[in-house]
Design a protein that fits this description.
Length: 256
């Protein structure tokens, strides 16, 4: 990482790797104290933060977003298609109930009927009657790295997409338009792979703890400063996304 204005801490101290207060280790450069426990430099309301970029007009600009309007015929046909599938779905459920049509979904045995049901028929209605009709277009197994192009395992179904059999053939060079590999992290070579190897050699694969304990690195604070500059605000906070974001971080910042 390069030393720039983005490497300055939120409390006004410069965040350079050779300054005091940093311990160089195999896991990068970790600050001695928790960022939330460091002595804060209180400023008057009229003082401006030296490292922050104030741009109050940023949020006063009108936000205009336009979308292509769906043609009326397309909308009507789409709703009609869902309606027809729904009607036939209820008809098929009626036939399954009387064992006229074979049921492929999991259900309780007769001796389990007195217990709380494990499977709700209505909740599974979409999966049974609508999704199964087009299931062959989704959840396709691949046998290569999910890059811009990938290889698919060919499969066939003999019971209307309830089960699939692999033919042993491979469909080569299929364009990947539905993968999370939009940044190329799954590739073994390239810019992302080289940057990941370099960062791993400096900082390791993870901090092994929360930021408020002993997991705060200089790149965390550089990220927060960069986000604050980009948004034109005084400061920002960055933390991992997941369940803890909703259960711990948000309640610590705001109430009902």
């Amino acid at each position: 990482m390069t030393e720039s204005s983005a490497t300055k801490l939120l409390n006004g101290d410069a965040c350079r790797r050779t300054l005091n207060g940093k311990n160089a280790s195999k896991n990068g450069y970790v600050k001695n104290h928790c960022p939330f426990q460091q002595p804060q430099k209180y400023r008057r309301s009229g003082e401006k933060k030296q490292n922050a970029t104030h741009n109050p007009s940023l949020y006063k600009k009108p936000f205009v977003e336009s979308f292509e309007e769906t043609p009326l015929l397309v909308a009507v046909l789409t709703y009609m298609g869902y309606g027809i599938l729904t009607v036939f779905g209820y008809l098929r459920d009626f036939l399954r109930h009387w064992n006229i049509e074979k049921c492929h979904v999991a259900r309780e045995r007769d001796e389990q009927k007195d217990f709380v049901p494990l499977y709700q028929d209505f909740e599974n209605f979409y999966t049974r009657n609508l999704y199964m009709r087009i299931r062959d277009n989704w959840n396709r197994p691949i046998c290569s790295v999910p890059g811009a192009r990938m290889d698919l395992v060919e499969r066939v179904t003999h019971n209307y997409n309830w089960t699939f059999d692999h033919t042993g053939k491979v469909v080569k060079d299929v364009i990947n338009m539905g993968s999370y590999n939009y940044l190329g992290f799954a590739e073994s070579t390239g810019t992302c792979a080289d940057a990941a190897i370099e960062a791993t050699q400096i900082y390791g694969v993870g901090v092994g703890s929360t930021r408020c304990e002993m997991g705060n690195l200089d790149i965390h604070e550089e990220l927060e400063e960069l986000v604050a500059r980009f948004l034109g605000v005084e400061a920002s906070m960055a933390f991992g996304m997941g369940f803890a974001t909703n259960s711990m971080n948000i309640p610590a910042l705001t109430g009902k």
